[in-house]
Amino acid sequence: MSAKRLDQAALATRTAFVFPGQGSQKVGMLAELAEQFSGIQATFAEASEAVGFDLWHIAQSGEGLDQTEFTQPVLLTASIALWRVWLELGGVAPKYLAGHSLGEYSALVAAGAMSLGDAVKLVNLRGKLMQSAVPQGMGGMAAILGLDDARVLELCEQINMQGRGSVEAANYNAQGQVVIAGDKLLVEAVMAAAKEQGGKAIALPVSVPSHCSLMKPAAEKFAQALEETTIEMPHLPVIQNVNAKVAADVGELRQALTAQLYQSVQWTKTMQMLQDEGIQYIAECGPGNVLANLAKRLPNIEKAFPLDSRSRMEDALNAILVAEGKIA
């Protein structure tokens, strides 16, 4: 579908697409769909040629899939492969796009702001810079559940006052679910404090502490790569992670992508914006269903669909076409 037709088709819809970030990867992702849609492997071949290594092999074998520099281009490519299948099958053009962390790049590619080839090179570099910013094993992330946002921030501030490093809110994922990131020992201290306050704390199996000030050195280097990459205004509105707003120009897009490395992902506000804009249907365009499950908690979202298998894709396709009045 052309950019102009996407623009026009999206105007009247009540559907938004969301693209997942790191953590949604799994060995063998999209294997079933690849047997039925040649475009899946064609998309992976296109991205592999751009980045210089075999992304499909990594996705299917799992070799290197836990290394950030490989995880990020694999996930982005998987999301764009699913997006292309959706359009090929006549799926509704969404009114808004949003991506969680890495997923913001998937959203921008889907919206025509940058090419798939440029994007996979960017996120491969992004992963390398993030990995090199903090020595292996020195950083950490954890999900804090059951406490309100303000209380989690207070706990982080209390631990930071001890002056041994920093720990911050990294992802505001939903009411009562905040991910923290920073120096490993401080993350563990906040986890212990959260449990004492009656919350739950779950350490996340990640190799880098994303979306916190420890990533500022990576962001400074990454900004130059962004300046050298061709970026256009998206053909569909993309909600940015750092402020839950749609950029007014390409300069704002670049600034937001740089800041995203060391500032919090405002996913709770992003989902609230979608509800405020009348969105009722959410499709998660990537492996897994983490974002779809978060969306199901929201009062104004009627249905949220993952798209990572043939049956899930068809369920979403038919339900949304009926709900949007495209078919009876």
UniProtKB/TrEMBL annotation:
Which positions make up the signal peptide?
none
Q: What family does the database annotate?
A: Belongs to the fabD family.
Tell me which UniProt keywords the record has, alphabetically.
Acyltransferase, Transferase
Q: Which SUPFAM superfamilies match?
A: FabD/lysophospholipase-like, Probable ACP-binding domain of malonyl-CoA ACP transacylase
* Entry EC number(s): 2.3.1.39
Q: Which GO terms describe its molecular function?
A: [acyl-carrier-protein] S-malonyltransferase activity
The answer to whether the entry has keyword Acyltransferase is yes
- What name has this protein been given in UniProt? Malonyl CoA-acyl carrier protein transacylase
Ranges for domain Malonyl-CoA:ACP transacylase (MAT) come to 18-312
Q: Which InterPro entries match?
A: Ac_transferase_dom_sf (IPR001227), Acyl_transferase_dom (IPR014043), Acyl_Trfase/lysoPLipase (IPR016035), Mal-CoA-ACP_Trans/PKS_FabD (IPR050858), Malonyl_CoA-ACP_transAc (IPR024925), Malonyl_CoA-ACP_transAc_FabD (IPR004410), Malonyl_transacylase_ACP-bd (IPR016036)
What lineage is on file? Answer: Bacteria, Pseudomonadati, Pseudomonadota, Gammaproteobacteria, Moraxellales
Reaction equation(s) it catalyzes? holo-[ACP] + malonyl-CoA = malonyl-[ACP] + CoA
Can you name the source organism? Acinetobacter chinensis
Task: Say which enzyme class the record assigns.
Answer: transferase
